[in-house]
């Protein structure tokens, strides 16, 4: 009986997974979520005799609140992400060890961000909880991506999440929030490195199939937070503020990974791989055009706003 391609790949990549797991465990620094929350600022809400939330209590802007909510709600859907990663990687050997380590590290993110936001009254806790319930009930479904597609998607997604957290922290202009989200972003970066290295190894084992997967995931990319209520509107506000937009996605997420993998220098591709690479090239050119147009429209809108204020 022939061995399924996914099984063959998992067997051949077992050593790479173990090597990268050990590297991750060596470089990952222990940190405590509770140390990033200013507990002394906390006070009871209405049910316990305190004050209900009011926008005036927040020290961050409405756009910053939107970005913080989207980032947290994205982290909240961890049970669905765990299911998807475990489905792809399994529970055995180094693969399973990574799945559970990754999940444990990701779990800290939602815990500490929520604690911070509630203690500082940065966001509306009622709206946040209702959105959490809707988001988690919607869950996340990758559509049963093939193994190589999972590698490609999570590489781009982890890098995108790292940048979103870092930029959100800076945008809040709150040093405590920026410190917290910078720490979360460090975890996301280490996760990206793990997946990035699996893609690199897969390009050597199955170059055509891995190229096809990279192209498909770049073209079809969608953040896992797309299931968040009113995500499209919120993503537009976040892009308008320059926290995460097409230019950032093109320049700081897609291209750094493509350069790392030397996608356009790779030799020895077959017909399918070359076809996928050509599609990727055409898509990137179109995305560059879209990013430039968005920047132009945003600059024009800002100029009009400045003129009205003058």
TrEMBL record:
Keyword Coiled coil applies: yes
Keyword hit for Cytoplasm: no
Keywords associated with the record: Coiled coil, Fatty acid biosynthesis, Fatty acid metabolism, Iron, Lipid biosynthesis, Lipid metabolism, Metal-binding, Oxidoreductase
Coiled-coil region: 277-304
Cofactor(s) required for function per UniProt: Fe(2+)
Gene3D superfamilies per record: Ribonucleotide Reductase, subunit A
Top-level taxon: Bacteria
Record-linked InterPro entries: Fatty_acid_desaturase-2, Ferritin-like_SF, RNR-like
Family assignment from sequence similarity: Belongs to the fatty acid desaturase type 2 family.
Assembly behavior: Homodimer.
Name under which the protein is recorded: Acyl-ACP desaturase
Organism (species): Amycolatopsis speibonae
């Amino acid at each position: 009986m022939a061995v399924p391609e996914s099984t063959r790949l998992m067997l051949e990549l077992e050593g790479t997974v173990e090597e990268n797991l050990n590297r991750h465990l060596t470089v990952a620094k222990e940190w405590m979520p509770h140390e990033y929350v200013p507990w002394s600022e906390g006070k009871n809400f209405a049910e316990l005799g305190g004050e209900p939330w009011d926008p005036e209590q927040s020290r961050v802007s409405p756009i910053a609140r939107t970005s913080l909510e989207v980032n947290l709600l994205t982290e909240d859907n961890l049970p669905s992400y765990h299911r998807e990663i475990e489905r792809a990687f399994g529970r055995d050997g180094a693969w399973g060890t990574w799945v559970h380590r990754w999940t444990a590290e990701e779990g800290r993110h939602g815990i500490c961000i929520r604690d911070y936001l509630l203690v500082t009254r940065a966001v509306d806790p009622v709206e946040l909880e209702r959105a959490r319930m809707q988001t988690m009930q919607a869950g996340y479904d990758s559509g049963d991506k093939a193994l190589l597609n999972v590698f490609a998607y999570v590489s781009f997604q982890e890098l995108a999440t790292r940048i979103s957290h870092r930029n959100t922290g800076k945008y809040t202009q709150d040093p405590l929030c920026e410190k917290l989200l910078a720490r979360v972003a460090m975890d996301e970066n280490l996760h990206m490195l793990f997946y990035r290295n699996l893609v690199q190894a897969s390009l050597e084992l199955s170059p055509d199939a891995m190229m096809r997967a990279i192209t498909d995931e770049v073209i079809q990319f969608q953040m896992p937070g797309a299931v968040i209520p009113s995500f499209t509107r919120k993503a537009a506000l976040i892009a308008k503020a320059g926290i995460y937009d097409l230019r950032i996605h093109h320049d700081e997420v897609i291209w750094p990974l493509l350069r790392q993998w030397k996608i356009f220098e790779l030799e020895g591709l077959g017909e399918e791989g070359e076809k996928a690479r050509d599609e990727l090239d055409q898509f990137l050119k179109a995305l560059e055009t879209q990013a430039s147009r968005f920047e132009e429209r945003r600059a024009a809108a800002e100029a009009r706003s400045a003129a009205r204020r003058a």
